[in-house]
Amino acid sequence: MAEEDIQAKLQNYRTAPFDARFPNSNQTRNCWSNYLDFYRCQKALDAKGVDTAPCDWYKRVFTSICPISWVQKWNDQREEGNFPGKI
What we know:
This is Cytochrome c oxidase subunit. Component of the cytochrome c oxidase, the last enzyme in the mitochondrial electron transport chain which drives oxidative phosphorylation. Keywords: Disulfide bond, Mitochondrion. The protein is 63% helix and 0% strand. It has helices at residues 2-12, 28-48, 56-65, 68-80. Helix 2 runs antiparallel to helix 3. The longest helix is centred in the middle third of the chain and has 21 residues, at 28-48. The protein starts with a helix and ends in a 7-residue tail after the last helix.
């Protein structure tokens, strides 16, 4: 049942919902947090050998609120091994 709920939410997803941790209009920290959460989630679930589909929520959020140039820069930094965040 929980898996079906997650899949239904992902299907109906349009844009990032309100997050009480980031009440201001400046969504920079929200963008950064969701980017990190996506890769942390993937890493944790991969280590357990579990399906990483629940992590897609974070990816949808950060792709809807983060500038593409930031995401590309962070992806490049991760690939080069000099990403400043802790994943």
